[in-house]
Automatic annotation (TrEMBL):
Biological source species: Entotheonella factor
Domain (CHAT): residue spans on this chain: 375-638
Residues in TPR repeats: 29-62
A Pfam short name: TPR_12
Protein name: CHAT domain-containing protein
Alphabetical list of Gene3D superfamilies matching this protein: Tetratricopeptide repeat domain
PROSITE patterns: TPR
Keywords from the named record: TPR repeat
Length: 643
């Protein structure tokens, strides 16, 4: 066994053995409780519950009521996770009784808070006893507030008042909930506790919105967003924070966006609603930056490609489309030369996500056209509402800033009933315009580093057409080619040291996982992580001259994995490249080579942008009866800079 978790387990078990041998029952009980917590973190719930039972026996034997209460609470929460809620209720009742008998301390206050949260969670599993459990949760939180007040501990007071406010919110007693929540905000501010403060500011925003006070709600939401941004560095470290980032942070940002869009909809004149639309766009952009930093565990990830041009004047031939998924509707925020406009579609996030999943699933099957109904439905929801506005404009490119599940599908394959979207417009994708610095590709003799594998290595299939692909690129650009056994880390570094390349082309298997540690590009002997790629490119390039284009022609993301698609969308930014050409899923090797070669051929033409080059390359396949199914040409995405 290897890894920090295994090391921690060995030390914990060794300490437990020593405590048993010494006959120290209290220490043994504490270590058993710690071991149970370890097993819980590892999702080994059966083992955790068994260990908690043993710890409880020893805690009772030593008459340590605080430890007994902690162990009972831990056992109860584990039983809930195991689907054994009927066992959890009596354990929580016993834990509450133990703590009520103790003098007021900080440990008691936090123990009561944990009991209250467990009662709250138990309501879902035992709906028939929801009212009783609500009263028990209220009692636990109120007792926690009393204990915190007695010892003058504002931090635990903040949690007690905040959780009480949340209970009242669930009961739709909004005014009482708001009073409690404001006490929680004040207590958190008193001790500078942003990790709880943003929760109560967000809660206050929800309550003010429910009380039909939208302006005050917007102020509260903005305060919550500001607090989250100050807390971001802490929230972006550690796997626990990583897994919950979107769940905990996204609703704060998008709750504010929701309120701003609703207020904009109530205003009749463009001059009146433009500030709210611009603010909504900026909040979405800020979230995109934070989310990408969270994925790559790197707060500096956006520095190399930070957008210098104001968002309102990015391009006269491109329209920026922000699809915003909200619980009750989807908003399309469109950046036009005349300003921002919004289009509301009465389809909530859940229904839209189902359609997106079905579209992606059917699209990958290149033998059937079952995707077409889904492609047309999504076109009706995401494109048709604003398409007529584009007719009088000289728009060439639609640049999508997708969110969540929309990252997993190619917008180019949406269909209006007669033709694919790619017939009408070039299509590009960016994780956010703040992360993009749109500049045309320099046409004066770019230098290309071509890396690839034709041989099957490390259990991956061969890519026989890669050899022709890389050799053809030599006809377009002065190139250095590292193929098969030459495609090693040392050889890449040596090549980068000799030349300053404009384009890096990787024709090898790549995988983007939901975690940056699961993301890699395959070399002849190793798996090249995105961190290593970033390091190699950064070591041999001036910071003010980023790579112009990174092409990954054989990478893939898992269907339905929004975080993996986020990693793909951000690969150019992480690697310090202005743009990337990459695939959402693995494409037929011959089709991939055909498209990529045409892309580079088009890129030779002086007036052709990267997005237009990809459009022409995709149409090149679409017009070939062998490859007209979008499963061949649609997964190619142009990411970030489209010019």
């Amino acid at each position: 066994m290897t890894g920090p978790a295994d090391t921690a387990l060995r030390y914990l078990q060794a300490s437990l053995d020593m405590a048993r041998e010494s006959g120290n029952r209290l220490l043994t009980a504490k270590l058993l409780n710690n071991l149970g917590s370890f097993f819980t973190l590892q999702q080994r719930f059966d083992e955790a519950l068994a260990v908690y039972r043993e710890s409880l026996e020893l805690a009772r034997a030593t008459e340590d009521r605080l430890l007994a209460a902690k162990t009972l609470t831990n056992a109860a929460t584990t039983a809930i996770r195991l689907g054994q809620p009927s066992e959890a209720k009596p354990w929580l009742d016993q834990a509450l009784t133990h703590l009520q008998e103790l003098d007021h301390t900080r440990d008691k206050a936090y123990g009561l808070l944990n009991i209250g949260l467990a009662y709250r969670d138990l309501r879902t599993a035992l709906p028939a006893r929801a009212h009783t459990l609500l009263r028990s949760a209220f009692t636990a939180f109120q007792n926690a507030a009393d204990a915190a007040l007695a010892i003058d501990d504002p931090r635990s007071s903040s949690y007690a008042w905040g959780h009480l406010g949340a209970l009242y919110e669930q009961e739709h007693r909004h005014r009482e909930a708001l009073q409690l929540t404001r006490r929680a905000v004040f207590a958190a501010q008193r001790v500078n506790a942003p990790e709880s403060l943003y929760r109560w500011q967000w809660q206050a925003g929800r309550l003010l919105a429910a009380l039909n006070q939208p302006d005050a709600a917007i102020v509260a939401y903005q305060q919550a967003v500001d607090t989250v941004q100050s807390l971001h560095q802490e929230m972006s470290h550690g796997q626990g924070r990583l897994l919950s980032f979107r769940e905990e942070v996204q609703p704060v940002y998008f709750g504010l966006v929701d309120l701003l869009l609703k207020r904009a909809a109530s205003l009749p004149q463009q001059a009146q609603y433009q500030p709210d639309l611009a603010r909504a766009r900026d909040i979405v952009e800020s979230f995109k930056v934070a989310e990408l930093q969270d994925y790559f565990l790197d707060d500096c990830v956006a520095e190399a490609t930070a957008q210098a041009t104001p968002l309102d004047v990015v391009s006269t031939t491109a329209v920026i489309v922000y699809p915003i998924l909200l619980p009750d509707r989807t908003e399309l925020l469109i950046s036009l030369p005349s300003g921002l406009e919004r289009f509301a579609v009465p389809v909530g996030a859940e229904a839209l996500t189902r359609e997106i999943r079905a579209f992606r699933h059917t699209l990958e099957n290149r033998t059937l056209w079952a995707f077409l109904n889904h492609a047309q439905t999504l076109y009706d929801w995401l494109i048709r509402p604003f398409i007529s506005v584009l007719a009088p404009l000289s728009v060439e490119t639609l640049v999508f800033v997708p969110d969540g599940p929309l990252r997993t599908i190619p917008m180019a394959a949406l269909h209006d009933g007669e033709q694919f979207l790619i017939r009408q417009y070039a299509v590009a994708t960016t994780p956010g315009l703040k992360l993009t610095d749109p500049r045309p590709l320099p046409k004066d003799q770019p230098k290309l580093l071509a890396l690839g594998l034709t041989e099957g290595v490390q259990g991956f299939t061969p890519l026989p057409h890669v050899s022709t692909e890389l050799q053809t690129l030599r006809d377009f650009y002065p190139s250095t080619v590292l193929l098969n056994e030459e495609f090693r880390l040392d050889d890449i570094q040596a090549a980068m040291q000799r030349e300053q390349f404009t384009i890096v082309h990787v024709a090898s298997h790549g995988q983007f996982g939901r975690d940056v540690h699961e993301t890699f590009l395959l070399t002849f002997e190793e798996k090249l992580t995105v961190d290593w790629l970033d390091r190699i490119l950064a070591d041999f390039r001036p910071r003010d001259t980023p790579l112009e284009l990174l092409t990954l022609s054989a990478c893939e993301t898992a269907a339905g994995d929004d975080r993996a698609a986020l990693g793909l969308a951000g690969v150019a930014i992480k690697a310090g490249a202005r743009s990337a050409l990459a695939t959402l899923w693995s494409v037929n090797d011959q089709a991939s080579s055909k498209l990529v070669i045409e892309f580079y051929r088009q890129l030779q033409i002086p007036a052709v942008s990267r997005a237009l080059a990809l459009q022409r390359a995709q149409l090149h396949l679409l017009d070939d009866p062998r490859y007209d199914h979008p499963g061949y040409w649609a997964p190619f995405l142009l990411l970030n800079n489209w010019l």
